[in-house]
Each structure stands twice: as structure tokens, then as C-alpha cells.
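Please study the protein below:
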Amino acid sequence: MKRLIFSLVVISIILGLDPLKPVSAQGNDPNRAENDSGSVVCPPGVYTQDPLSCMPLGPSATLTQSSINGVFPSTPRADYNPDYALNYVPYHYFRLNKSGTTSYLSLGDAQSQSGALSNIGPGLVYVSYLDRADTGNGVYYYLSNGTWIPGDGGRVTPGIFQGKEFSSTPRTGFGWFLNEAQSKKRPDFASGNSTVKTYYRFNFVPVYASKVFAGTEWLMIGDQEWVEGRFVSSVLPSTTPPSSVDNGRWIDINLAEQTLSAYENNQLLYSTLISSGVDPYWTRPGLFQIYKKKDTENMSGAFEADKSDFYSLQDVPWTMYFDKARAIHGAYWHTFFGYPMSHGCVNMSIGDSAWLYQWAKEGDWVWVHDPSGRTPENPDLYGSGAP
């Protein structure tokens, strides 16, 4: 081995080479500054500023963008489920057949169909009852107004959907799925865009970012997880009060997203899905104030001249009037929250309306707006409103 090393040194000297001096590869100057392609890649991490000593590429670039979107690093969840007991109301509800029915003073009168007091309906009629009697010759209901009716119709079981309470305002947006949908790896319709997960109605998800592809809005709900915006009603918290709000408390009603959020002292407290007015009975945009609260309310009326669209709703819970006859209230007759359904009122689930009723005060502000611009703002188009 010693002889081999000695021979290599002798050959180097003969060729005029310094055996102790490093040789530059391909004749390049070893002291020359490297370009970016040869720079050292930074260790994986979030780099909100240029680290100078390394290139924040690869995993670092992904983590940095995820940090900007709010995906990484993860933060403690600020949302929690409201008290389930808020779904309770001291009433049972019954929907009459469209042809209507007759009320009687006693159960015996109802069975014999004698001594009729009044006709109820025809139309869309819901009543509240305190007792139910199965006589063997028919079922009868004892109403909260002290009368009996035959059981011609069907009992109603209100839905139990509830929104979210918040201990602090979330860093990012959030939303609820309106129906079953599948999330995708990318925000596009290209073939090979694989499915990540299947979601179902009322599933609650964070919303980190949005992107429009070929005219379709996509929402980022996870790392490399996107869903079409039409499947989700989303909320982007905004703690800046609308102009003229002077007490730090307001209710934000977004008609485009069909959501309601409650704010106090520049913090989001509660958010949920609603059902506002359908065309042409829109919920009117504007800034209003709650002028009357009622634990329960009977609502009835008709819009057509022949009264063919007559409706009667007994014991509507947790009613808060804010714009003429338009009110925020619980709705036990449907569960289509996230879609317009009313004649101008703002429908909420019973549990959601109970929470809001307990929190809200007469005089609190209600800001109704439609970021999409589809709801008319001409006041001449609006009547008094209805459930």
C-alpha cells in the first residue's frame, strides 16, 4: 500500500500537479457562489420570511401555504355543541289533513260529532296538542286551546339539528354540508381526480380557502381536500359590526349562504343554518332591530285572494320580530334548513331559536344581506311578511 501511494505522488509531480491541492471539478472555481439550483433545501417547516441561508422548497413550501390557509399548524377547536335540552318545547304538534277538521268542546262531543265549535282549515294547518286519546273507535287530540279534534292527519316530530357555539372566533371559515357529497383531491373536474371522503347532510367542516375553476366555486376543507361550493353553506366570520350598530351586539343573516351568526363584543358566539323567504316572498335586506319577543306565537293568514294558500301555525316557539311581521323563530314543520322555505320570516330549528331567544334582547340589531346580489332591495317589492 505504501508503495502504491508513493508511486501516485511521484506520477503527480512528473505531471506538474500539486498532490496536496484540491482539484476543481470540471474546471469550476470552488469559491464561486452557487445558484439556486444548488442551494441547500431548508428543513421542513413554516417560513413566512425568506430564511436566506436555505431554500424553503418542497415540504416547506407546502407547510407554509398550509399555514397561510389556516390548515397548519392545527389549533384547538373553538366550536362546541349547544345544550341538547334546547330542543325541548312543552308542546306536541299535529298536522291536519288539507281538507281541515272540526273542533269540539269535549271528547264525547268529538266522538258523537255533536256540538261543533268551529271549523279549522282547509289549508296548511298545524295545531299543538296536550293529550291524545285512542278510544278504540278513533284517535282524538286535546288541543292547547281546550278543544278536541278527530285525529285526521299526522303527528309531527320536530328535527333536532343545532348549529355551533364558539368560545372564540375561529381563524378560518366553516360550514355545513347541505346534502351528500364527495370531496376531491383537487379543485377541478379532470379525470383521475380521486375521491377523498363522503360527507352527509349537516356534517360540519372547516373551510380554509376557495377557488373558482371553470365557473364553479370549490372550497378547501382539508389538506388536499376540496368540495364544490354548492354542497356547503359556509360562514366567513367577520367581527366588524355593520354601520350604525352601537351596542356591540348584532345578528348577521346571510341570504346567499342561508346562515345566521350572533356576535357580541367583536366575537362570534353562535352560527347555524336558516331558511329565509322564497321568491317572491323574500326576506328583506337591511339593518333592523328586534322590537318584540314572544315565547310562543300563533301565526295564520293567506296571500291569494281566494284564500287557497291559507295557513295556520299554532304555538310557533321563540319568536323575535324585527321587520314588520317578519320574525326570527323556531320552525317545527320542516327541516330544510340551508334552503329558502318561508314567506319572509327567518326559520330556525327549535334548538337554535331557543339559544338565540335566550341570548337576544329587544333592541338588538339584525343585519340581513345577500352578498350574491340576487335578493331585490327595492322596498316597494316587500309586504309585511309571514312565516
Notes: The longest strand covers residues 311-323. The chain has a mean pLDDT of 87.
